[in-house]
Amino acid sequence: MVTCSDLEESVLERIAPAPDEIAHINEVARKIIALVEASGIAGGMIVGSVARNTWVRGDRDLDIFMLFDPALDRNELEVQGLSLARKIAAGCGATYREKYAEHPYINANIDGLDVDLVPCYRVSAATEIQSAVDRTPFHTRYIRERIIPHVSDVLLLKQFAKAGGVYGSDQMTEGFSGYLCELLVLHYGGFHPLLESAAAWRPGTLIDIEDHRQKDFSDPLVVIDPVDPKRNVSASVSVARMFEFVELARGYLENPSPEFFFAPVPGVFSQAELKAELDMRGTHLYAITFDTPPYIEDIVVPQLRRSMDAVRSLLERHDFVVNRADCAMLPERCMLVFELLFEDLPSVRRHIGPPVWNRENAAKFAAKYEDLRHIELFAGPYIEDGKYIVEVKRPFTSVSDLLRSHQVLDVGLGKHVKQVMEDYWELSRDEECWSEGFAPFLSQFVRYESPVMRIKRLVKGIEDRSE
């Protein structure tokens, strides 16, 4: 019988960085740091998982911070920082592009590595930061001083979270960052103790390693930053991702298997398979697609979610029942998708008015529908259970008509989403929603399941095919 320790040792053999990877990434880092230092205007520092030796084999990310004098004006920091970063990237013969977080930085491909060159202030304490990125060097120092006995635990946790689909603090994932994984391992003392505790997590779980919290938080998981008592490191973790991690922890503890670290790749529906699946469900998909706004994911994704919620509310106000809704962002196109339990309604809609004993409002209600009798009234006003009732003409009897109407643009869409949709958007129904780019997203949307249920189904499918 394979024990947890045997399994995890075999996993570590596959995910620990190979010696040639370590040598290559360190060589590139030293070269870039030397170029930063040679500029005479900034110091260089490796941050992130490479600096802390907690990166998983195959990761090609390298974060180099360029530390400037804190007396420098913010605008000048951006100007000098970007100028230096461009010179370094060009000097390395790299392709690069400008990206934005709290302020601009350069992302470059240098010797096969994805390198971020980020300007920040060289402050003496985390409490003196002038921008969010100034905090990162303190994170690196804090972890580096403590993590050596737990590096293997962190590698296991990161691979576990990646395979489970809960790794990443980006807006689309809403999961666990690398820094958060490191802090959880430090707090609980290892991978197994973390899973055993996480299996019993509840909303409002609080972790304060340094016991120095200076602010209350309402997030489902609160992990106070050891270098900033007013910051929740796990603020990005949604309720869904938190309890998917809880389920993964329980599932692994009950039945440890390699699939918790290397999950089988889910199948992707063809257009015909999507149609067959919808036919079996008896529901209908409607997708609104449009050009991706020219902004970073951190800006676009919250607007996609806001737009999705607004359109869902529009549908439900018109009595169309939405089973589920979701959104996706590709480099060129975005999609809002809705699964409807039905797509057509009768022309008549029942509308309940005020109680008759509310004399003033009842009189206004009766007068309003008396005036509109010849336009939209099927029956009423009549009195039922002491209230006025009218049966009026429904403005939209089909989902398609509603979603093609101008009302979609008037429901509180995200600012940049609305701007691109005002130019053009497409509405698709059922298998017409399918495209090669969105096929993985739609497949996951239709066959929605929790991480452990997905692992069990995929493993069973593999076992069935091998018999």
Characterization of this structure:
This protein is of the alpha+beta class and about 475 residues long. It has four domains: about 15-125, Beta Polymerase, domain 2, CATH 3.30.460.10; about 150-260, Poly(a)-polymerase, middle domain, CATH 1.10.1410; about 270-345 and about 395-460, Poly(A) polymerase predicted RNA binding domain (Alpha-Beta Plaits); about 350-395, no CATH class. It contains 17 helices and 15 strands. The strands form four sheets. A five-stranded mixed beta sheet has the order 1-2-5-4-3, with helices on both faces. A hairpin with a 2-residue loop joins strand 4 and strand 5 (about 115-120).
Q: What is the CATH topology of the largest domain?
A: Alpha-Beta Plaits
Query: How would a crystallographer describe the biggest sheet?
Result: 5 strands, mixed
| Tally of contiguous helical segments | 17
Strand content: 15-25%
In whole angstroms, the N-to-C terminal distance is: 21 Å
Q: According to CATH, what is the class of the largest domain?
A: Alpha Beta
Low-confidence stretches: none
**What would CATH call the architecture of the largest domain?**
2-Layer Sandwich
| Structural class by sheet pairing and helices | alpha+beta
Query: Residue share in helices?
Result: 40-55%
Strand order of the largest sheet: 1-2-5-4-3
Q: What is the overall pLDDT average?
A: 91
Number of domains: 4
What gyration radius follows from the Cα positions, in whole Å? Answer: 27 Å
Principal-axis shape? globular
